[in-house]
Amino acid sequence: MIPISTTEPARWTPPWRAAATPVPVYLLRAAGVVERELIEAELAGEHRAGAVYPFQLRAAFTAGVHALIGETAPEDAERLVQLIAQRDAAEGGEALSDDELALIAAAEQVMTEHYPAYRALIAQAQRREALAPVVAFQRLCVGWENVSAPYARDWSGVTPAAMAAIDPFELRVAGRAAYNMLYAGAQSGN
């Protein structure tokens, strides 16, 4: 669904409930560029859930590898850094063996547990994954039909009480649809 208007809501139904009687419908509106950035600012500021980019994770991982094993086993540290680079480039290149992938997974677990900079980025990415759909739903849902909970709004959007009355999984998926609409405007010419 590609939004055309920031005032006319799009009708969205959870795919697994499309055959229900009556069919539940969430009314989600698109956001303009400024509102999109305000949502991103709220995630990054108030919720400490800004976007975490792959290059940030890779840099923290590399620093952690050098800090934790670089002095005692520099060859192992370099090999691990090379494996990460290979894995990240493997989309069109050579694949790593199962043993190499297992080594990377174990190293990422160690970094998450023992290297604060990497652990902080993982926590931030998890906060973002959990909160982005909820914040987008709160701001961009303008009503619903055939949902057992009553719809209510206040100055910040859908009220917490109204959101709490919705099935949590359904809220997350509807929120993900609302969040995806934030960036769908670039596709409107297709």
UniProtKB/TrEMBL annotation:
Top-level taxon of origin: Bacteria
Protein name (record): Uncharacterized protein
UniProt organism field: Alterirhizorhabdus solaris
